[in-house]
């Protein structure tokens, strides 16, 4: 099965490692991980600037989605 992340992006559910709320970046470890991923070009922003709500971590990329964690969880079930 697949999960629609917003915009025109659909990923296989088996590739998803984690779905994190954008507010979770307050943790020092999470912030460091995301900063490193951004520096290395792994982050793909599929939302308008300032509208990001969720990080979706896959095996190859990290997506910034405008869809909330709760909604993505419901879609995944």
From TrEMBL:
It comes from Desulfoscipio gibsoniae DSM 7213. This is DUF370 domain-containing protein. It comes from the Bacteria.
């Amino acid at each position: 099965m697949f999960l629609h992340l917003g915009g025109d992006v659909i990923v296989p559910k088996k590739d998803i490692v984690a779905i994190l709320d954008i507010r979770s970046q307050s943790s020092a470890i999470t912030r460091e991980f995301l900063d490193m991923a951004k520096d290395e070009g792994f982050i793909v922003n599929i939302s308008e600037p300032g509208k990001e709500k969720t990080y979706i971590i896959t095996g190859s990329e990290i997506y910034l989605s405008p869809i909330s964690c709760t909604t993505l969880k419901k879609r995944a079930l």
